[in-house]
């Protein structure tokens, strides 16, 4: 028996109850999905440097997707054109990702990311069909769109967010570079804008619709997953139709 503040405890009982010790590290949230996405993007960039054909084979390009190279819708979201390109995208992902991953949970956060990626790709295939594009900008801006949606749903002003300026910059740069050569090259406005809209839509499906009773709460994840698939299908349909609405941004 072991002496206690009140009476005695048997060793088996003490061992069975066992005090659990929590340290600062164990209580601190680890954004593992965000870190994994950054790692995959960085590894893909190094692979591009070693295998230049990887970039050509993974570009988002409507005519080739229409010929059956559907993987470009996904692969293009993990390829980048320069060190500055991937650096800026990964910085923004690190600024936004952990907060959303903690708020939504890992599975829902992945739905937000890939829904945004496919929505950005779909916007490009529809509005800028024959423009080759690549980059994680659509997915990352989609996370910003999701954050803006959450702010709106919760009654906060998104302009107070620390990433608001970065989001505006990401949306403004494609417009500016479409008319002025400032050394950044052409940046896909539709990839950025489509991703942001897609992220906001997925966030609304996960939060707004179930909270307003529009869909049952236990179906929110399934509905969001269906939306992700819908954006991917929209990208395929856009490439098949070859619409290219003539908006060059």
What does this structure look like?
A hairpin with a 4-residue loop joins β1 (2-3) and β2 (8-9). The radius of gyration is 22 Å and the shape is globular. The protein has helices spanning 11-17, 24-27, 32-50, 53-58, 62-66, 72-75, 83-104, 106-127, 137-153, 164-179, 189-211, 220-241, and strands at 2-3, 8-9. It has a two-stranded antiparallel ribbon with strand order 1-2. It is built from twelve helices and two strands.
Blueprint of the fold:
Elements: E1 2-3, E2 8-9, H1 11-17, H2 24-27, H3 32-50, H4 53-58, H5 62-66, H6 72-75, H7 83-104, H8 106-127, H9 137-153, H10 164-179, H11 189-211, H12 220-241
Antiparallel strand pairs: 1-2
Helix pairs in contact: 3-7, 7-8, 7-9, 8-9, 8-11, 8-12, 9-11, 11-12
> How helix-rich are the residues, as a percent range?
55-70%
Going by CATH, the architecture would be Up-down Bundle
Question: For the largest beta sheet, what order do the strands appear in spatially?
Answer: 1-2
Low-pLDDT segments: 1-9, 20-26, 178-185
According to DSSP, the number of beta strands is: 2
Largest sheet: 2 strands, antiparallel
CATH superfamily: Rhomboid-like
CATH topology: Rhomboid-like fold
Order of helices and strands: EEHHHHHHHHHHHH
Structure annotation, total helices: 12
Strand content: under 5%
């Amino acid at each position: 028996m072991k002496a206690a503040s009140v009476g005695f405890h048997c060793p088996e009982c003490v061992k069975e109850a066992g005090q659990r010790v929590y340290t600062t590290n164990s209580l601190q949230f680890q954004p593992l999905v965000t870190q994994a996405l950054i790692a995959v993007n960085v590894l893909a960039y190094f692979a591009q440097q070693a295998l230049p054909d990887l970039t050509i084979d993974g570009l988002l390009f409507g005519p080739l997707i229409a010929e059956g190279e559907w993987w470009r819708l996904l692969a293009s979201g993990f390829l980048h054109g320069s060190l500055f390109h991937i650096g800026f995208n990964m910085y923004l992902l690190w600024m936004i990702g952990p907060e959303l991953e903690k708020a939504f949970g890992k599975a829902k956060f992945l739905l937000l990311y890939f829904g945004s990626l496919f929505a950005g790709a779909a916007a490009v295939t529809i509005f800028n069909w024959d423009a080759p594009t690549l980059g994680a900008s659509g997915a990352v801006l989609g996370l910003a769109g999701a954050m803006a949606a959450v702010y709106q749903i919760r009654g906060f002003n998104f302009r107070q967010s620390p990433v608001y300026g970065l989001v505006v910059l990401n949306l403004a740069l494609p417009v500016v570079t479409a008319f002025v050569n400032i050394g950044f090259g052409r940046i896909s406005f539709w990839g950025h804008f489509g991703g942001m809209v897609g992220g906001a839509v997925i966030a609304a499906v996960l939060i707004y619709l179930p909270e307003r009773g529009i869909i049952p709460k236990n179906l929110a994840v399934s509905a969001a997953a269906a939306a992700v698939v819908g954006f991917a299908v929209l990208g395929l349909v856009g490439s098949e139709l070859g619409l290219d609405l003539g908006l060059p941004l």
